[in-house]
Write a structure and sequence with these properties.
The protein has one domain (about 40-205, about 245-405). About 55% of the residues lie in helices and about 10% in strands. It has 13 helices and twelve strands. Strands 6-5-7 form a three-stranded antiparallel beta sheet. The chain has a three-stranded antiparallel beta sheet with strand order 11-10-12. α1 runs antiparallel to α3 (about 95-120), α2 (about 80-90) packs across α12 and α10 (about 300-330) packs across α13. The two termini are about 35 Å apart. The relative contact order is 0.15. Bound molecules: zinc ion (2 copies). One zinc ion binds next to loops.
Length: about 400
């Protein structure tokens, strides 16, 4: 079956003609430069092989400890679940759930979901509940943070290197390999190719569309749908995902999320984030005092990572989102392409702020040695996690197509 001749940009809503020749490399929007579609090459077998490798590595990661810490005659080992368990023990279950989602649930669902879909597809069969699984994989993708967790481990390893002896476990090497395998899976997996393959298998013919105002392109499967005869909730005819000409109440909802994140940003930086009790002595740290400590002890690279990820990026993200919201409300035509680009960067970098939370996860798991040294979580950790989560939701809620809805080009 030939692909649909029309393609609509998700970021600026520009309708454009798909090239007749098969797409090599990536297809970019003529107006805003967003990626419209990845290569049309069918890499399903490569993805399946990578998924299998990923599953084996993921089992290793969860079965063995990744770090061992020796201090004052005591030995402490940590697996992926140890830090999460410690959050629950100390009563910070929302943090435990967040780290569980980011490091275990989302990667596991990604692997198992793809395996469940791709294996039958290899033999010309369609898995049950396939649309739901593809939609869930797509929704969980931003919350899959194993590569950021890896950076968190690195921060804690360097931080503790002066206080005791650290040994790397087999699972740490598996985790390193897994981050590369996962990146390769993201690179090779192309849901649009899967959907077109399914259309061919079921001999389903999706109507060809010509350029019309009522068309919306599905964010999940890439099908261009006509909304002309649809009433109530708009949903994709092929995969069932919700369709939006524009995200609903995008401006007011994004403002609400930005303001909430802005409010949490204050206690996240004012209150202590951890409390280290060592030989009866208490040392409380805020995010900033942690950065200053790294600078004083010569670990300037850690200071730079934590300052950028925990202080600078969240603030920058809030400022950029406010700027985009105001510019959208003014319906200005000023540098639309650059504003779309800024939005794209903001959406991509926000999740890296989680590195501090992951560093703490590894820290509480390793430094749990009773009277010798124990790390306790303080309220700022929860406020800070809230800032990251709310800014991520804010970036997801903001509709970049509004940047292109100006006086002369309104879609209301
Ligand atoms: Zn575009
Ligand atoms: Zn769809």
């Amino acid at each position: 079956m030939q692909s649909n001749p029309v393609i609509i940009c998700h970021e600026c809503d520009r309708m454009q003609k798909r090239p007749d020749a098969p797409i090599e490399g990536v297809l970019r929007c003529v107006q805003c430069d967003a990626i419209l579609q990845k290569s049309a090459a069918d890499n399903t077998d490569v993805t399946l092989a990578l998924v299998l490798a990923g599953m084996i590595l993921f089992i290793l990661i969860n079965a063995f400890p990744f770090l061992t810490f020796r201090m004052g005659g005591q030995i402490q080992e940590t697996t992926l679940i140890t830090g999460i368990h410690m959050f629950f023990i100390q009563g910070w279950w929302p943090l435990g759930l967040l780290v569980f989602l980011a490091t275990i649930l989302a990667p596991a669902f990604h692997l198992m979901g793809l395996f469940y879909i791709l294996l039958p597809l290899k033999f010309g069969k369609t898995a049950k509940c396939l649309p739901w699984i593809l939609r869930t994989i797509s929704a969980l993708q931003p919350w899959n943070m194993i590569e950021i967790f890896m950076l968190g481990i690195l921060v804690t390893v360097v931080k503790l290197s002066n206080d005791g002896e650290i040994t790397f476990g087999i699972s740490l090497f598996a985790l390193m390999a897994f981050t590369f395998v996962q990146a390769a899976i993201f690179y090779t997996f192309n849901p649009v190719v899967i959907w077109e393959k399914l259309d061919r298998l079921s001999d389903r013919h999706m109507e060809k569309t010509i350029c019309r105002k009522d068309l919306v392109q599905c964010h999940i499967c890439g099908l261009v749908c006509s909304t002309e005869n649809m009433t109530g909730r708009l949903s994709c005819r092929r995969c069932g995902a919700a369709l939006h000409k524009r995200k609903q109440n995008s401006v007011s909802r994004t403002w609400a999320l930005v303001l909430t994140a802005g409010i949490f940003y204050i206690p996240a930086n004012v209150f202590p984030i951890t409390n280290i009790i060592s030989f009866g002595e208490y040392t409380t740290d805020t995010i900033l005092s942690g950065v200053i400590y790294f600078v004083k002890t010569g670990m300037w690279h850690l200071a730079l990572i934590i300052f950028t990820a925990s202080i600078f990026v969240p603030l920058l993200k809030l400022v950029i989102l406010c700027f985009l919201l105001i510019s959208v409300q003014l319906k200005t035509t000023w540098r639309q392409k650059d504003r779309t680009r800024i939005y794209r960067i903001t959406e991509a970098i926000g999740r890296w702020s989680m590195v501090d939370i992951f560093a703490i996860t590894v820290l509480i798991a390793l430094v749990d040695m009773g009277a010798i040294a124990t790390v306790r979580i303080e309220p700022a950790a929860l406020y800070f996690a809230a800032v990251v989560v709310f800014t991520m939701f804010a970036a997801m809620t903001f509709d970049p197509r509004l940047i292109w809805d100006t006086e002369n080009n309104s879609h209301d």
